[in-house]
Amino acid sequence: MTVTFAQGFEAAGVEAGISAVEGKKDLALVVNRGPLEVGAGVFTTNRFCAAPVQWSRKVVADGRVDAVILNSGGANACTGQAGYDQSAATAAKVAELLGTDPDRIAVCSTGLIGELLPLDKVLAGAEAAYAKIAADEDAGQDAAHAIMTTDTRPKTVERESEAGFRVGGMVKGSGMIAPQLATMLCVITTDAVVTAGQCQAALARGVDVTFNRIDVDGCMSTNDTVLLLASGASGVEPDPDEFNAMVADCCASLSRQIVGDGEGSSHTIRITVSGAVSVDAALACGRAVASSNLLKCAISGNDPNWGRIVSSLGIVPADVAPYDPDDVTVDVNGVRICDGGKPGVDRSEVDMTPREIDIDIDLNAGEAEATVWTDDLTHEYVHINADYES
Amino acid sequence: MTVTFAQGFEAAGVEAGISAVEGKKDLALVVNRGPLEVGAGVFTTNRFCAAPVQWSRKVVADGRVDAVILNSGGANACTGQAGYDQSAATAAKVAELLGTDPDRIAVCSTGLIGELLPLDKVLAGAEAAYAKIAADEDAGQDAAHAIMTTDTRPKTVERESEAGFRVGGMVKGSGMIAPQLATMLCVITTDAVVTAGQCQAALARGVDVTFNRIDVDGCMSTNDTVLLLASGASGVEPDPDEFNAMVADCCASLSRQIVGDGEGSSHTIRITVSGAVSVDAALACGRAVASSNLLKCAISGNDPNWGRIVSSLGIVPADVAPYDPDDVTVDVNGVRICDGGKPGVDRSEVDMTPREIDIDIDLNAGEAEATVWTDDLTHEYVHINADYES
């Protein structure tokens, strides 16, 4: 059901001819029919942020978003003033169709960096999408398909509270995925009666423990955008804690789907670091392990190579994560193969056949813990990224 | 000529049966016959440093090293007290053969982390190597072969000053290569008349601008060791600047050979960042680019994908490297494909056929520059590291 699961939203996904892939839907439109038109967003911190990010950051600043237009087939990043003008023109076209102001229209783009979009196709696509928008499931699925790039499947979520409000969403992303967002575009919608401040707070909290803790390849994108739109159409004012939890839960589901579809991956790797002096210390350790190409290759070869786990842990400075290497234990899929910094159970005892590989690291230095997710590194990842739009 | 190029050194490389590779030389011995027995070293900063690193760090602390014994086929890392005892026993055996103290014998190991060495084979190998040591070129080459792991060729260097002293060396390393050393063992020898303090200073300076600026896969090893031994056998007291320059030049040559033999690589990538406010800022930018898996895949596909260059630059925080994205230029193999943060010359103009790819980034923010080296990321890298000793 995706972005149309919550009441008050319409969507469409069409083939606008932007993508080089024949027959691929490449333009999505999500319209908030109200009665509220509340919006909030979290964006990439990359200093080379794309034109649509620069545009949309201004749009969400006042907390009102009437619609979002998203395209695959081109990132419109590193395109200078001409690129910014394209994002503005795209917003203006949607605003004209909706009878609203351009500064209430968010714009998202994904694809190759460094090339302008075929603007005439984008504008014609906006008209085609507007002509097709609907509130049904097919419309939401079309939108989710239209934002895909190297994704092998659409990624969507829906949740309904007992109090009667709904949250739904869609995301794209499978490469250039790093902590601190990812190469991803995400739109979450809700029909709860909430303010822009509530939305921004819920989104920031949710993103921090989900999208900011996944890492496919350590590469941060220029275009990452996560938007939360609220229509108020359910008439339900949610309990704040319940609302926050539902938004976070949607972010968690969508971020897990990204890792589960990481480019060319054969294993999803969950890394939990416990016994840390702080969550930041646990995160630093988890991210160091998650970014090890050597470990990710070993996992793709079904080798629970714990030497590559501890050698990655060892690069985290002691002032960031104090621990004694001689106290560290590492379990892979429940088998303690490193015990007190030394060999434990023989690694041949580890069953590496499941898709999900669980790495549990106990630093034995404190009470805090954190979990990060990544994928293994395969021949297929190299193939996709050596040959992608080259 | 390698470590035996300088007068006063003898070496050997033998097959001790430590490596799983049939017929491979896996144990090397380098003996300083004096009249000086000066030694200095630089070691990994990995907190899970291997037993031989713990041992050798103590050996070089007093500036005297009579010999170095090195093995491939096992890293003796994360092996606890038993591993440390193996390094100590290995040093004791060499000391016994030479008639000196164990605390004058440096020990280096490389291979799989987390397993003890077959100590009896190491000790027998030490005896066999001692029986064969010689000062000729073959002996030096045998030693260089014996320390190889996934290296496809031995890596050696020799330099002779007009003043009549010599510097030579050998290194191994092709994977788990990161800034801040690399998975590498390096022994450099000189017959100059120098103090341990001069050696330590020359080595620290040389390593900082060479071995610490290469990055094959961003993974820092537990075993990295660079040793400089001086025999004084030439009788020449070198000009300090010339000595420093020659040591740095040897480090540069050996580090370049590592990158040139990076696991499975098809391109060597030189990244020079100029126009930075400081060398540290330039280095931070260069390392961010060098660590991008996406860029490294693109290069392996002969795609000068500058979007992946600037998106990597963009993750460096502004307080680390101040610059304006709209001022940045990127040249690949001499073609300015990104000009002022926007597309420049069409990337189809770039000739990607050479082995070496030159990426020149000008931040236009200052006067400082720095160069780092890396390799592309290929199917072969994944194959080597998915299947290596699994």
Automatic annotation (TrEMBL), chains A, B:
Gene3D superfamilies: ArgJ beta chain, C-terminal domain, L-amino peptidase D-ALA esterase/amidase. CDD domains: OAT. GO terms for molecular function: L-glutamate N-acetyltransferase activity; L-glutamate N-acetyltransferase activity, acting on acetyl-L-ornithine as donor. Its EC number is 2.3.1.35, 2.3.1.1. It is found in: Cytoplasm. It holds the Pfam family ArgJ. It comes from the Bacteria. GO terms for biological process: L-arginine biosynthetic process; ornithine biosynthetic process. Catalyzes two activities which are involved in the cyclic version of arginine biosynthesis: the synthesis of N-acetylglutamate from glutamate and acetyl-CoA as the acetyl donor, and of ornithine by transacetylation between N(2)-acetylornithine and glutamate. This is Arginine biosynthesis bifunctional protein ArgJ. It comes from Bifidobacterium choloepi. The lineage of its organism: Bacteria, Bacillati, Actinomycetota, Actinomycetes, Bifidobacteriales. The gene is argJ.
